[in-house]
Design goal:
The chain is an alpha+beta fold and 330 residues long. The chain folds into 3 domains: 62 residues, Structural Genomics Hypothetical 15.5 Kd Protein In mrcA-pckA Intergenic Region, Chain A (Roll); 97 residues, Pseudouridine synthase, CATH 3.30.2350; 154 residues, Pseudouridine synthase. It is 18% helix and 25% strand. The chain is built from 6 helices and 15 strands. Strands 5, 6, 7, 8, 9, 12, 13, 14 and 15 form a 9-stranded mixed β-sheet that branches. A 4-stranded antiparallel β-sheet has the order 1-4-2-3, with no helix packed on it. Helix 1 packs across helix 2. The chain is elongated and about 80 Å long. The mean pLDDT is 90.
Length: 330
């Protein structure tokens, strides 16, 4: 084939004696030196590569004379531009970083949110000509191992090498991390502490929401433990430990027991908390985002194996909301 192959082209190779025994992903990386290993690995995962007519794993050792056919996928979307946005680093070394993400910041670019993202800020702070952020998550997610909702603040970890990315991601998959959140709720849980075990799936009518759904194709088991730390008239401060990592899990589970996260537009019915909520005189809003904060994350360092306890202090807006509750009396 003349010139570089385009998306949708099928390219064929016959494995030579010199390449016999080579892993499929390594073989493709040699054949396409202008494409990253992570790009090619994702293509293999998406069944874009066949060996002797059969889709194959990246680890397949090729034999002499085997036919490799590769349907070239579309090039990846360009990654976010580096943006000079201040970040509060909780931990930083050559393998990983941890950031106290502010509320209102989207983790990575997506439709309608191309600028002002954590990914763009990370590129400005950490990326170097020879690397500095993992590319394992794809070009639009440099270094991103897990995520927090836009309006959830707190601890998020970032990988700086491919090896670190896989080591950190594996801990989330195996649930060996320990995550603790602080939430201010609208209304209070009936019990002082409990475990919520309710399956979560896609909401039947609103695509942007999740819901407690049993026996549905999208449902997955979800477990959340909580403890009420302080009760107020009309609310509570709750410590939450999710044991699984479903989308919107804490928000859906707290809403399911009648104590949704305060100011959670999707699940509490309120997008802003005015002084009148606490029977106070008119004034500036008390809260303008969901009162959910990723307070701490325990995780093993990807290189040393040392157990790290990463913590982020409660942000000022949630502190002000708590003081307003306390001053309103019980």
């Amino acid at each position: 084939m003349e010139g570089a192959p385009h998306a949708g082209d099928e390219v064929g190779f016959v494995v030579s004696a010199d390449d016999a025994g080579t892993r499929l992903d390594v073989y493709l990386a040699r054949a396409f030196p202008d494409r990253s290993r992570s790009f090619l690995a994702r293509a293999i995962d998406r069944d874009a590569v066949r060996v002797d007519g059969v889709t194959a794993r990246a680890s397949l050792k090729l034999r002499e004379g085997a036919t490799v056919r590769f349907t070239v996928p579309a090039p990846p979307r360009a990654g976010p531009a580096a943006e000079e946005i201040p970040l509060e680093f909780l931990h930083l070394d050559a393998w990983m970083a941890a950031v106290n993400k502010p509320a209102g910041m989207v983790v990575h670019p997506a439709k309608g949110n191309w600028k002002g993202t954590l990914a763009g800020a990370l590129k400005w702070h950490l990326e170097r000509p020879d690397g500095g952020l993992s590319t394992a998550g794809g070009p639009t997610r440099p270094g991103i191992v897990h995520r927090l909702d836009r309006d959830t603040s707190g601890v998020i970890v970032v990988a700086r090498t491919e090896e670190a990315h896989h080591a950190l991601a594996k801990q989330f998959e195996r649930r060996t991390t320990a995550k603790t959140y602080l939430a201010i709720t609208q209304g209070a849980p009936r019990l002082d502490r409990d475990e919520i075990s309710l399956p979560i799936g896609i909401h039947p009518y609103q695509r942007e929401k999740m819901a407690v759904r049993r026996d549905h194709a999208t449902s997955r088991d979800a477990v959340t433990r909580y403890e009420v730390l302080e009760r107020f008239r009309g609310g509570a401060l709750v410590r939450v430990e999710p044991k699984t990592g479903r989308t919107h899990q804490i928000r859906v589970h707290l809403a399911a027991i009648g104590a949704p996260v305060l100011c959670d537009g999707l699940y509490s019915g309120r997008t802003i908390i005015e002084p009148g909520f606490l029977r106070r005189p008119a004034g500036p809003p008390l809260l303008e985002r969901q009162a959910l904060h990723a307070a701490s994350l325990a995780i093993d360092h990807p290189a040393s194996g040392e157990r790290l306890m990463l913590s982020a202090p409660l942000p000022a807006d949630m502190e002000r909301m708590l003081e307003a509750f306390r001053s309103a009396g019980g």
